[in-house]
Design goal:
Helix content: 25-40%
Number of strands: 20
Strand content: 15-25%
Structural class: alpha+beta
Largest sheet: 6 strands, mixed
Distance between the termini: 110 Å
Number of helices: 11
Length: about 500
């Protein structure tokens, strides 16, 4: 035991001596420090970027087009600044920044089309960092397709259906940080902010997070049948056309040259046009449309417009129509409903959607709370929204959430027409032009001229039956023919 203690003591002393030698021998030189700092500098490693991805700017948006970049590379960006203009399935809207920093790299140039949600479109760096040394992440490789089954003898097992994604869990209680746009969207739709999953910096709930909550849960994917070997199609000889006859396959058209008979030119459809086509098809195939028409005497409205014009108050006939429809909905709340998967929903607010024609298609900005506004205020709101619609500057909350739609083609000389319902709304009112007609007065059996205007109500038969639609039109006509009634309602 004494020998072991002696050897241990000698080993400890030897260790102290070697450590002193190593300190003197491994003293770092200045050039080694420079090398270490170089390999740890941003010039070598790059600056970690802040990723800017394609956001969901509307509940139904699946992809977008980048119209114009409003920030250039190297330009300072503050939270809330508009980075670019993006064409969604509804309109052209601004994409705002959630962070402060510097625009470092634009990955998707102006004019990029069909950019899917979540795609990386730009990179930013924090303030004080060198934006020229930003680290560009490698592009994501597309997932490889599964190898084809060469053996047909071994049957392939059917795929296991994916379990539905669990509902979002409420965030832990604490102080919530919401952007102004996110707070407006959640308050408007009455959604608990605790259900949102924050993706912004330091737990900020962004506009995209709020819009994601509005989306319905994705439908479960249908079961895919096991892959069976497809029969081999053998090419058959195409019969040659008869002499002087029309060819079986139309020839291709060549740009810049007159097309031959039977040719066509493909026109790329914008996102707005695609959505309009989908919504029209959905409306006409899933909603039982019913139609009813009535003629309205516009003499009182025309006379009132002339009196207001003398006082430099300019309002249109359409402004009186919007007011009359809103007052009628207030008097008949059973028409102010929408249809959902669970059935009818009675609405507390009266928001009138007004159809506006633009170069990219039809869009319906909303006159909110129209029943409580005067005709002059309705006129100012309608003009401002129509201009924003034609410029493609409407915000999502300015064209979503209407309860009743109006489409007026009277300025084009159309006497009457039937409009397509804008789901999930229950009705749309189609307005024609005012025309002069001779009518027989029942009191003195004399003829006199009337300014008549035909309106046609398209209603959802599941919500508004023929009797209710008739009562609505009679009430609407009474309000429009006597504008003083609207002031008393």
């Amino acid at each position: 035991m004494a020998a072991s203690l002696r050897l241990g003591r000698q080993g400890i002393l030897l260790g102290f001596r070697l450590s002193k030698c190593n300190k003197g021998f491994w003293t770092p030189h200045p050039w080694q420090e420079h090398v270490r700092h170089f390999f740890q500098s941003p010039c070598f490693l790059g600056v970690s970027p802040l990723k800017v991805q394609m956001p969901a700017l509307s509940p139904t948006m699946e992809e977008g087009n980048i119209v114009k970049w409003l920030k250039k590379e190297g330009e300072a960006v503050a939270a809330g600044d508009a980075l670019c203009e993006i064409e969604t399935d509804k309109a052209v809207v601004f994409m705002e920044s959630n962070d402060d920093g510097i625009m470092a790299k634009i990955l998707m140039e102006e004019g990029s089309r069909g950019v899917r949600l979540g795609t990386l479109i730009a990179l930013m760096v924090e303030e004080g960092q060198d934006w020229k040394q930003v680290e560009i992440p490698p592009p994501e490789a597309p997932s490889a397709a599964p190898p084809a089954e060469h053996s047909a003898a071994t049957p392939s097992a059917p795929p296991v259906p994916s379990s539905p994604s669990p509902p979002p869990k409420p965030a832990t209680p604490g102080l919530l940080r919401l952007s102004p746009a996110a707070r407006h969207i959640l308050d408007t739709h009455g959604i608990d902010p605790n259900l949102a999953t924050p993706t912004g910096r330091r737990g900020l709930i962004t506009k995209e997070d709020a819009l994601n909550l509005l989306k319905t849960s994705p439908a479960p994917k249908a079961m895919v049948d096991p892959v069976s070997p497809s029969p081999v199609h053998r090419p058959t000889a195409t019969p040659s056309p008869a002499p002087g006859g029309r060819p079986n396959i139309p020839p291709l058209s060549i740009p810049g040259k007159p097309g031959a008979p039977g040719t066509f030119t493909e026109i790329p459809a914008s996102n707005i046009r695609r959505v309009i086509a989908q919504r029209l098809l959905q409306s006409k195939t899933t909603i039982p449309h019913a139609y009813a028409s009535v003629d309205c005497d516009m003499a009182a409205v025309m006379h009132l417009r002339k009196d207001l014009a003398k006082e430099q108050i300019k309002v249109s006939v359409n402004d009186f129509i919007i007011k009359a429809a809103a007052i009628t909905l207030k008097e008949m709340p059973e028409v102010n409903v929408t249809w959902s998967e669970n059935g009818p929903h009675a609405l507390d607010s009266i928001h009138i959607s007004v159809a506006v024609a633009t170069d990219k298609g039809l869009i319906t900005p909303i006159i909110k709370d129209a029943a409580n506004k005067g005709v002059q205020e309705i006129s100012a709101n309608a003009k401002a929204l129509a201009q924003k619609a034609r410029d493609g500057k409407l915000l999502p909350e300015e064209y979503q959430g209407g309860s009743f739609s109006i489409s007026n083609l009277g300025m084009f000389g159309i006497s009457g027409f039937s409009a397509v319902i804008n789901p999930p709304q229950a009705c749309i009112l189609a307005v024609g032009t005012a025309r002069s007609e001779l009518r027989l007065c029942e009191d003195d059996q004399s003829l006199h001229t009337q300014q008549l205007m035909t309106v046609t109500l398209s209603s959802d038969g599941r919500l508004v039956d023929d009797e209710l639609a008739s009562r609505f039109l009679n009430k609407f006509r009474a309000n429009l023919e006597k504008p003083q009634r609207m002031a008393l309602a």
